Amino acid sequence: MKKLFMIGAFLIGGFSLSLAQEIELSESNVDLGNIAYGGKAVTTIQVKNTGTKPLVISKADASCGCTVPKVPKDPIMPGKSADMTIEYTTTTKPGAFNKTVTINSNAITEGRKIFRIKGVVADNPNAPKAAPAAASVKK
């Protein structure tokens, strides 16, 4: 009897997981390329619900204040997709960057998904140029 109960519990649990909400991103890494110093870059990805119940994105946290994710406010219905926009604003630091956005949702198998953006911020054109080193005089 105990074995029969356990088998029933596993079957019901497995069935309920098959009737769950799942999240799929159109891309998990985006290269924004070269960005002008003081500029801004925006990318949009598709968030798809591959499950059978509505997918709700509760929040998206960026690894820094220069990266701002904008997530869908409404639940994403089964089989449907919605846009998620990520805006990166350059700050006072030229050079390569690699930022992450952690997406939290009610998805059963992956409630947290990580999305990455990277690129290169150009040098500040208004930055003072370094003075050339003085030539040493040999006698």
UniProtKB/TrEMBL annotation:
A Pfam family assignment: DUF1573
Keywords per UniProt: Signal
Top-level taxonomic group: Bacteria
Transmembrane segments annotated in the record for this chain: none
Coiled coil (UniProt feature): none
Name of this chain's protein: DUF1573 domain-containing protein
UniProt cross-references to InterPro entries, sorted A to Z: DUF1573, Ig-like_fold
Secretion signal, residue range per the UniProt entry: 1-20
Gene source species: Moheibacter stercoris
